[in-house]
Amino acid sequence: MTRTEVLIAGAGPTGLVLALFLTRQGVNVRIVDKTAGPGTSSRAVAVQARTLELYRQIGLAEHVVEAGHINPGISLWVKGQRRAHVSFGDAGAGLTPYPFVLMYPQDRHERLLIAQLEDMGVQVERDTELLDFSPHEGHVELRLRGPGGKEETCEALYLAGCDGAHSLVRHRLGASFEGGTYDQLFYVADVRVRGRQADGQIHISLDDADFLALFSYSDDGSARLIGTIRDERAAHPEALGFDDVRGRAIQGLGLQIDEVNWFSTYKVHHRLTAHFRHGRVFLLGDAAHIHSPAGGQGMNTGIGDAINLAWKLKAVLRGEADDKLLDSYDSERLAFAHKLVETTDRVFTFVSAEGNFANFVRTRIAPLFVSAAYSVDAVKEFMFRLVSQCMLNYHGSPLSGAGAGKLKGGDRLPWAAGASADNYAPTGKLDWQVHVYGEADEVLSSWCHRHGLQLRVFDWERAHEHAGFARGAAYLVRPDGYLATADGAGKPDALRDYLEGIGYRRFTSD
Q1: Are residues 244 and 277 in the same domain?
Q2: What is the mean pLDDT of residues 282-308?
Q3: pTM of the complete model beyond 0.85
Q4: pLDDT tens digit sequence for 11-24
Q5: 360: pLDDT confidence band, cut at 50, 70 and 90?
Q6: Are residues 411 and 473 in the same domain?
Q7: Which InterPro entries match (predicted)?
Q8: Torsional class of 34: left (φ above 0), alpha (ψ -120 to 50), beta (otherwise)
Q9: Nearest partner of 301 among 256, 334, 255, judged by Cα
């Protein structure tokens, strides 16, 4: 019987990133998908700054940025007139190496991830469907159907369900998926456009009882168009084609549509499962949570799930940590998913609400509010942090310990912008680090060296103080770039006690 450490069901971005990060850490994986090949339409297009920060640690971010299209800002339009403009660069400068929203169509994104996996000797097993599984005390038994209908029984130590909104893994677990479906009918189209707004930025039209958005993802006019269909035509979506919505696109944003590569209609759902971990089985991405496309959060959240889980699985599989470490995947990512569903639900409800008052607020008040708000630096920074997922923290996590300076356990490691040494520079491996901004204590240096724990010392600069670091403090940084705990005096005892407390044995034996 074939055995593997982790079997991943589903080869979308979530499953591919999980396979990539596990393989980079030496974990044996199989990744299966029932489709014959990767997707051929753009689907999710936004790659947020936090995703790029995490990609940078494995040398992937620059490939994605080079292949994608940087959207430097967003404009709001009402009745053909621009009423507000927001610059991402102004809002994100100093917060991240990637102060923009990157447009990178999902089909291209998947192909890049697949190529990275193949370079490491991992092939996606296509035309291979997970039919059933049975969890046992020390493994999961799985039944697969491969090409030609041939069935196979195999074992894995863990199963990761990355198989989308209609997840077989979730169904077989009997897990809940509470939520609902919005009434409005949306359409999505991949188009090639010309016109005054085909300028590489994001444009949103908020006309009465209508919503329309254009997301450019190349310099040749290729773009994603999203809009609502509110009249009687919405009752028969199967009969609709792009010609039925073309006029609205031309009127709202002054576009000339030269080519339509893909068109589809859909309803927006918002659903969330109650638990992301079920013993040796995990749910990730759309299998665990789906929400409105507001803010381009969905794919990025699934990727975040994968990276959060990957380093924890590796630690448990290699005997470095107790199995209870895996419980933190459930608590950390479930809490974030709850916040995300609530936030995107509020935004979606606002842009899609009907009625005269809703139209007045959306078309008259909202553009004025956005213009005024973005003249305040603190508001600009808050909004960028929110959309880019740089605001994500794990303050309530059982893995979040003490802080130092202005930083707390569970914070994203701040990027020390303007510093002579980049504290986000990749180290070549996904592992724990200790950061000291100032001078490192000799006892700390000796402890880190003895346990093979990388110590990174940065000469103290004003940028570090601005980012919230305390001079000379020791910050223990998780493999996924979040602060675990800190000791203001720069001593190792608190770090060792923290690691012992979470059942992480690798750095605690003397």
Answers
A1: no
A2: 88
A3: yes
A4: 999 999 999 999 99
A5: very low
A6: yes
A7: FAD-bd (IPR002938), FAD/NAD-bd_sf (IPR036188), RIFMO-like (IPR050641)
A8: alpha
A9: 334
| Nearest of 306, 500, 314, 332 to residue 412 by alpha carbon | 332
Mean pLDDT over 489-503 rounds to 95
Do 214 and 265 sit in the same domain of this protein?
yes
Length, in residues, of the chain: 510
The number of C-alpha atoms within 13 Å of 184 and in the hemisphere containing its C-beta is: 20
Helix (H, G, I), strand (E, B) or coil at 477: strand
Question: Model confidence over 319-352: pLDDT tens digits?
Answer: 999 999 999 999 999 988 887 767 665 555 555 5
Q: Are 405 and 471 in a shared domain?
A: yes
Q: Do 123 and 151 lie in a common domain?
A: yes
Residues 204 and 112 in one domain: no
Token pair, residue 497, equals: 């006690």
Whether 488 maps to a domain, the answer reads: yes
Cα–Cα distance between 220 and 377 in angstroms, integer? 33
Check the CA dihedral 225-216-219-115 and report its sign: negative
Q: What CATH code is carried by the domain that includes residue 429? A: 3.40.30
Q: How far is CA 402 from CA 354, 497, 501, in A?
A: 47, 11, 13
186 CB-near residues (< 8 Å, 6+ apart):
226, 227, 228, 229, 265, 266, 267, 268
Q: What percent of the chain has pLDDT over 90?
A: 57
Question: Which structural domain, as residue segments, surrounds residue 98?
Answer: 69-102+180-269+353-388
Does residue 348 lie within any of the structural domains?
A: no
Q: Which helix (DSSP H) or strand (DSSP E) does residue 359 occupy?
A: helix 356-360
The residue to which tokens 């419980």 are assigned: 327
